[in-house]
Amino acid sequence: MAGGWLDPGPGLARTALRAFSCVLILLPATAALGATLPFMAEAVSPRRLSRAGDVARAYALNTAGALLGVVAATAVLLVEVGVRGSGTMAASISAGCGLLALAMARRGAMPAWDEPDRVAVPRSVRGRRQSEGVPPSDLRPWVAMAAVSGAGTLALQVLYTRMFALTFHNSTYTFGLVMASFIGGLAIGSAVYANVRSRWEPRLIVAWSMVVGSAGVAGSVALFSVLTGLEYFSSGSSWWTYLLGAGGLVALVVTPPVALLGLALPACWEAAGSGRWGERQGEASGSVVGWLSAANAVAAAVGALVASFVLLPTAGLWASFGVASGGLGLAGLGLLVALRRSVAEGFFAGLLLLGWIASTVQVPARIRTLPADPRIRIVASWEGPYGRTEVVDARPGVRILRHDLHYGLGSTGEATVREYRQGLLPLLLHPDPREVLFLGLGTGLTAGPAVLVPEVERVGVVELIPEVVEAARLFQDANFGVLDHPKVEIRVDDARHDLLASRDSYDVIVSDLFVPWESKAGYLYTTDFYRVVRDRLAEGGLFCQWLPLYQLGREEFMMISDSFASVFPHASLWWGALEAEKGMVALVGSDRPVAVEDDRVEAVLPAIGAALEDSDVYLGSATALRRLRIGSWPAPDPGALLNTDEHPRVEFRAPIRQRDDRLLVGGRLLALVDEVFRALPEGPPQPSYRRRVWQRAQLLDSIGR
C-alpha cells in the first residue's frame, strides 16, 4: 500500500481528467478572445500588412492591457471583488469592448474592409487552403519561427518563476511581479518593433532578436545570482518597500531579455506578410496574424508544460535555462544562415552563443548550502515542477528537509518532539481513532507516530510534492518507517482534490502546518475547504488544523478561527507549542464536544512512550494533555469577515503582515493570550484559571530560552 503512489496509472488518469476539464471549461472563452487579435490586425491594416507598425502598436497595447489586468487582479480584484466577481468583471469588460467595436463599425468609425488580392491569390487556391486547414506553404517557415518563439518564451516564464521562488517569499504578490515584468517585456518589445521596423528588414529582426535575446537570458540568470547571492530576499522595512525592491529586482533581471524576445512575433507577422523570402505574396493581415499567433500560442502551451514536467525534473533549473534560451538562439542563428547573411554576422552571432554557453556553465549546477556554514552538508536534492527539495545535515543529530532553499518542511533534533506532538495530540483526543488521514507528509515525523497508536487500523497520507516523498525516506530512523508501514498508504495529490475524489470517511483528519502567505496555501484555510473536510469525517470524527502563530497576524488568526467555527459546531483551541517566538496552536473541530478521556489516554500512552526516545512532558499523562486546552472557539458573529474561496483574504493579507513585522510573536502573542484566549468560553467542566496562568508562564519562560 505504501508504494501505491508510484503507480502512474491512477495518477496520470486523474491528471489527464483534470487537464481535460480545464480545457473544456476555458477553451470556448479563450478561443473567442484569441480570435480578436487577427481580427484586430485586419481592422488596423486591412490590405495585407502594409501598416505592420500599427499592428505591432495595437499588439503592444493589447499586451500592456494584460499587464494591467495582472496587476489589478493581484493587488485588488481577487481579494476585494472576489474570484467569481473578478471573472464576471473581466467578462463584462470583454463584452463591452465587443459592443463598442460593433457600434464603431456601424457608425463608420472603423476602416472599411476590402477582400485582399483576388488576382494574386486565385479563388481556387484560396478555397483549397481553407479546406485543407493548414497554413499556406509561403507562411510555413514563419509559422515555425513563431512556434519556436512561443515555446521558448513561455518555457522561460516558467523557469523565471521558479528561479525567483528560490529567494522570494512566494506569495501571490511576488508571482504577480514576475508575471507583470514578463508581460511588460513582451509589450515593450512589440512597441519597440513598431518604431524600428523601418530601419531593418523584419526577417533580420526575427533572427537577431532570438540570438541576442538568448544571450540576454543567460546574462540575466548570472545577474540574478550575483544580485541575490541566492539569499532570502528581505529588502525594505515594510511591505511597500519590500514590494518596491522585489519589483525592481524582477524588472531588472527579466524585462530586458524578454523585451528582446518580444520583437520576434510582430517581426514574424511582417516577414510572413511580405511573402516568400521577400516576394510580395498577398495574404491578408488577419490570415497572417491568425496563423502565426495560433502557432505561437499552441507552442507556448507546450513549452510551458515541457519546462514544468520534463526539463525541470530531468535537467534542473539552470540547465533548463540553457536548453530554452539555447533553442531560441539556435533558431535565430539558423535563420541567419538561411538568409545567407555575411560571414561577419554569422561570426558575431556565434560569439553571442558562445557567451551564452559560458554564462550558463558558470552558474552553479549545484546550489551552495544555506546558510553559509561549512558544517552544513546537502545529503540529497531534487528538482521538480514545484521547486527544489533538499535534505541537509545541519549538525550532528539535526537533519532538515527544506524547499526552495529557505522553507523548512520539518527537521529532527529539537523539533522532533514537537512534530510528534502534532500527530499524537489529535489521536489522543479522539476516543477510538481507527481511520486516520494526514494532509501533508514532510519529514513523516507528524504522521509516523500514528502507527504507534493501538486502535489505528489505517493511515492515509496525502502529499502534494513527489520529491518530498522521496526525501522522507531519508528520515526513516525518526519517522518509524512510515512510508513502508503496512498500515500506511501514501498518495501524491493535492489535499483538496484527494478529499473530493474519495468517498472514504475518517475518524481523524490532521492538516499540517502550511505557510499562510504562500500562493494557494491560503485556500487550505477557507470555509469551503473546511466543509470538504467535514463531509469526510465519520460520525464523531474530528479535524485538527495546525496554525503557525509566528506566520500569522492577529486579524488573520481570528479570521481563520472564525471560518473554522462557522463550519464545525464544536471548535476548540489547543496549544501545540508554548513558545513566544514559535507558537503553534491546533483548532480541533467536531460534531460534538471534544474532551480528554482519562482512562483511554492513560491506557495508550505506555505503548506510545515506549517507542519514543524522548518523552514529551506535554503528553505524558491525561492531566498534562488537558493543560494544553485553551478553550472553546465560539461561532462567529453574522457580520464577521471569513476566509473563503471567493474572497481568499488570508492568502493576500498574511504576506503584508509578515513584511510589516506584525506577526504573533513576543509581546503581540502575549497580548492575544491576555485579550482573546483568556476570554474564551470553557468547554468540559474543569477549573481554567490555574491552567491559563500556567500557559502564560510557559510563554514567558520561553522568551528567555
TrEMBL record:
Residues 354-591 form the PABS domain. InterPro entries: MFS_trans_sf (IPR036259), PABS (IPR030374), SAM-dependent_MTases_sf (IPR029063). Keywords: Membrane, Polyamine biosynthesis, Transferase, Transmembrane, Transmembrane helix. PROSITE patterns: PABS_2. Pfam families: Spermine_synth. The active site is at D512. The keyword Endoplasmic reticulum does not apply. The chain crosses the membrane at residues 16-37, 58-79, 85-105, 139-160, 172-193, 205-227, 239-267, 288-311, 317-339, 346-365. SUPFAM superfamilies: MFS general substrate transporter, S-adenosyl-L-methionine-dependent methyltransferases. The keyword Transferase applies. One of its GO terms (biological process) is polyamine biosynthetic process. One of its GO terms (molecular function) is transferase activity. PANTHER family: BLR2883 PROTEIN (PTHR43317:SF3), THERMOSPERMINE SYNTHASE ACAULIS5 (PTHR43317). Belongs to the spermidine/spermine synthase family. This is Spermidine synthase.
